[in-house]
Design goal:
It is a single chain. This protein is mainly beta. The chain has two domains: 42 residues; 315 residues, TolB, C-terminal domain (Neuraminidase), CATH 2.120.10. The protein is built from two helices and 28 strands. Strands 1-3-28-27-26 form a five-stranded antiparallel sheet, with no helix packed on it. A hairpin with an 8-residue loop joins β23 and β24. Bound molecules: magnesium ion. Magnesium ion binds next to β8 and β18.
Amino acid sequence: MTDLRHSPDNASPVEAHGFDRRKLLKGAAALAAAAVTTQAASGETVPPFGQTGTPTRSTAPLPLGPLPGSRYPDSHLESAHPKTSFGPAGFPAFAGTMAVERVATGFRWAEGPVYFPAGRYVLFSDIPNNRIMRFSEDDGHVSVYRQPSMNSNGNTIDREGRLLTCEHSGRRVTRTELDGSITIVADKYNGKRLNSPNDVVVASDGSIWFTDPVYGIGGFYEGVKANPEQEKHNVYRVDPKSGDIKVVVDDFVEPNGLAFAPDEKKIYIIDTGFTDGPDNPSHIRVFDVDLAAGKLSNSKVFAEMPKPSITDGLRTDRDGRVWCSVGWGDPNEDGVRCYTADGDLLGKIHIPETVANLCFGGQQRNRLYICGSSSLYAVYTSVQGAMKP
Ligand code: MG
């Protein structure tokens, strides 16, 4: 009987047991090389793209549907020119049968709403939860569109129906193409990283305009804490043909929401610098726009906010009115304000939470969607949002 454990005279006991030390060493060398290669490939460590929080769980979730006390006419809709009869009051959200509804809830900080008419849904950011949510208008269901979202903030849609997104932890502006791939539109200026893009609009010529304050890198809750690399908190324009990025305004304390007038001859840009100091602005500025040259001029203050309230986001309607968010101050001011193009206050929409931003939606573009802290609100209006977001 052959002893299979017997070693030939010229073989080591190890080899007799099926191990080849030379092969082992060769293998170890290969592993070591592979390790070096792996180390080289992952030599640069990066932080996670913000924290991905668990959804809020409330024992008493805010009820959906019309807000309490919404007997017609809804007392949440306050005209600056009180009605003396049943006729129009001059505030185009004050028609008798319009009431504010809460259509979704359960978010930590809802921001950056944008409406996609082809799909009849609203996308909006839930910044601390590092996700973009989708509210479907047909049946009212809410789902996660993207997570992680790089702590996205402001969103908009371009003329081709593509999503544009400002990312805090990505410190960039991206475009989601129609096939779902993501294109980086802007992440640097003068070779240095952007601070934390906040809000974005696209003009009819394809140029992309966005603001770049520092809110998104101030801590780890709504982004990833980092030092600003841009000394100034600029408003930028990305050229539609070359992709070049240039500064269009550099004297804001904290530039925030922005929107073109429907004829694109003016642009409204918010300064929320008040968050950095009591003497700083809490207002909306308006500029003349030279779209072909990509230049702004003739800066004026359009509307002052009632400090300590600030406005964070705004949209215009087809007739040139300006609709802006209000929050962070007197709860009686929380909600939305509507101004004429001349800056006269037409009315307020009272929301029971601090409001960050808003957009027009609906198939007729006459429904105002309002991001208010933990919830998404909606109210029909007598106007249509500007087709140029
Ligand atoms: Mg904002």
